[in-house]
Amino acid sequence: MASGKTVTVAIMDAPYESANSTTALRIVQSALEKGHNVNVFAYEGAVNLTMKAQAPHPNPVKGTSVEQEAHPTTKDWVSALFKLAREKDAKLDWVNCGLCVDERGAGDWIEGPRRGGPKDFLDASSASSATLVIPTK
User: Fold this and answer.
1) SS3 for 113?
2) 3-state SS of 49-93?
3) CA distances (Å), 65 to each of 2, 53, 90, in order?
4) 56 near 73, Cβ under 8 Å?
5) What is the separation, in whole angstroms, between the first and last Cα of the chain?
6) By C-alpha distance, which of 42, 28, 36, 25 is closest to 2?
7) Alpha-carbon torsion 100, 108, 134, 83, what sign?
């Protein structure tokens, strides 16, 4: 059951560039597990977190296979977050910045995210109990 609280998280890092996006996804997951509603505003490279074309890969340096790596993609993680939100009767609103999407050609997403703009971030932040911005550096 939803707690009635809403948290907004802005993410800027592209997948696999640093631990920032992983940290952000863990924060979103934790908030949803507690039944909080979560707004995510994906900005800059973070719009690629939900791209359908991501695929796991082997590690040729280590000589491991795809199965041995068990390397989850961010699109699978975000998809699981939408599923968790449904299970917890919470709302996950994931907005990909449209300008950033256009610049990166990153428009083919998994089911769930929507296109928006900076006003969506302002509106979400204004209506939230807390806002966390996770920058690239």
Assistant:
1) coil
2) HHECCCCCCCECCCCECHHHHCCCCHHHHHHHHHHHHHHCCCCEE
3) 40, 19, 37
4) yes
5) 35
6) 36
7) positive
What pLDDT digit, counting tens, does each position of 28-38 carry? 999 999 999 99
- Asked if 63 and 48 touch (Cβ cutoff 8 Å), the reply is no
Question: Distance between CA 29 and CA 38 in Å, rounded?
Answer: 9
pTM, full prediction: 0.91
pLDDT (0 to 100) of residue 130: 95
pLDDT given at position 17: 86
What confidence score (pLDDT) does residue 72 get?
83
Strand 92-97, strand 114-116: pairing = parallel
Is pLDDT of 64 > 80?
Answer: yes
Find residue 130's DSSP bridge partners. 7
Q: Tell me the residue type at 124.
A: A
